[in-house]
Structure formats: C-alpha cells, structure tokens
Amino acid sequence: MDIRLRLLRAGLLREWRSEVDIRAGNDLTSYKFAKDYDSIMTLAVHGREVKVALEYERQPKAKNRYKVIQETIRNERRVDRFLYLFPEYK
After folding, report:
1. pLDDT tens-digit profile of 72-82?
2. The pTM is what?
3. What is the 3 state secondary structure string of the chain?
C-alpha cells in the first residue's frame, strides 16, 4: 500500500511535499534542501511535528554513490530524520 495513504489513515501525516515541489524549491529559492528527495513528510509524532526526508531506491547504485548520498544527507539541516527505503532485491 502507498506510504502516504498509510500515514494519512494512521493520522500521522500533516504535510506531504512531492519530489516535484522539492525540486522546484531547490531550483527557485535560496532555502534549499541538501538534495532533491522523493518526498518530505511532516509527521505528528508524540505531540510534535517531525520533518522526514523520504528516499526510495528504485534500483541499486554503485557502492561509491551511496557514500556521496550519505555525505549529502549528513549535511542536511532542514529535516529531522531520514527514511531510506529499498525494494527486496533477490
């Protein structure tokens, strides 16, 4: 089931920013995220709002590419947490 729909049904989702919105903001403003995430979710967790960057891995990358991604998100200051999802590769 869709992540967004599950969060809505659970009453956790306060805001969902799509990749298109994030990319446009990064291109057009000085208030940028460290990368163009697949989504930025604002969730209600234990009475407070938490901003979570969502990345969904569609296909495997080379090991050195993951090091670049790790460094990029390590430098992120606009989100509280990261959710990096991988499909099951057999």
Report:
1. 999 999 999 99
2. 0.85
3. CCHHHHHHHCCCEEEEEEHHHHHHHHHHCCCCCCCCCCEEEEEEECCEEEEEEEEECCCCCCHHHHHHHHHHHHCCCCCCEEEEECCCCC
